[in-house]
Amino acid sequence: MDLPLEQYANVRIHMMPWCFTLKKSGNTLSTLPEKSVIGTSSLRRAAQLKKKFPHLEFKDIRGNLNTRLKKLDEQEDFSAIVLAAAGLRRMGWENRIGQILTSDECLYAVGQGALAVEVRTKDQDILSMVSALQDPETVLRCVAERAFMKRLEGGCSVPVAVSTVVKDLQLYLTGAVYSLDGSDSLKETMQSCVNFLQQEVEGPNDDVQHVGITALGVSQQALESAQCLGTGLADLLLSKGAKEILTVARQLNDSR
């Protein structure tokens, strides 16, 4: 999901893991022959998987679900392709799932799986109405993730990846940046207290936004903590050389 920062409203998340569909059953990525070609349209996933499976090659693949599966089955270009597991399950094609990718193996994109209601930023009536749909945990996760990407000045042209989880009122954010070939990377995890269960009942305030997210009824202290967490983690990676990694990645991607 890619909405302008100033228009991002209330969110609810359902994370959808990625999976591999393999041409030959019984294989896994680690057992595929050297220089086997894997199809994926994501710079972020390709960079992470190149780092984990350096014996494999990765090639861009486009099209809808049927088109990509047809390319895998009928052409010799690919040994496996990366797809959203939810899409295959929705179509009743679970048997095409050869290997599930966990967040430990491949971090996801900022805001991936988040559903947002886009409204006018000063329309308090609608904001109050849709706030009944929001999930406070998801709001905080998205605030932290978006603050992380904003400070890094990241986007779809560079491999920036995240993973968030809330446990015992602590928000854990893992963030990483990668070179296009995965050979150079930085990855760190930070946490912050976000006691979102103690929600404040706030009146209308169209100036209260956190990286473009308006969340009425969620503690402002928790929102600020989540935003500071994302910014703080980005600053940590920047201090270790993240800007240089992303600059080179962006230049190489633009030159393609």
UniProtKB/TrEMBL annotation:
Its cofactor is dipyrromethane. GO terms for molecular function: hydroxymethylbilane synthase activity. GO terms for cellular component: cytoplasm. The keyword Lipid metabolism does not apply. It is an enzyme of class 2 (transferase). GO terms for biological process: protoporphyrinogen IX biosynthetic process. The keyword ATP-binding does not apply. Residues 23-127 form the Porphobilinogen deaminase N-terminal domain. Its EC number is 2.5.1.61. Pathway: Porphyrin-containing compound metabolism; protoporphyrin-IX biosynthesis; coproporphyrinogen-III from 5-aminolevulinate: step 2/4. Residues 140-211 form the Porphobilinogen deaminase C-terminal domain. It holds the Pfam family Porphobil_deam. InterPro entries: HemC, Porphobilin_deaminase_cofac_BS, Porphobilin_deaminase_N, Porphobilinogen_deaminase_C, Porphobilinogen_deaminase_C_sf. Keywords: Porphyrin biosynthesis, Transferase. Belongs to the HMBS family. PANTHER family: PORPHOBILINOGEN DEAMINASE (PTHR11557:SF0). NCBIfam families: hemC. This is hydroxymethylbilane synthase. It comes from Xenopus laevis (African clawed frog).
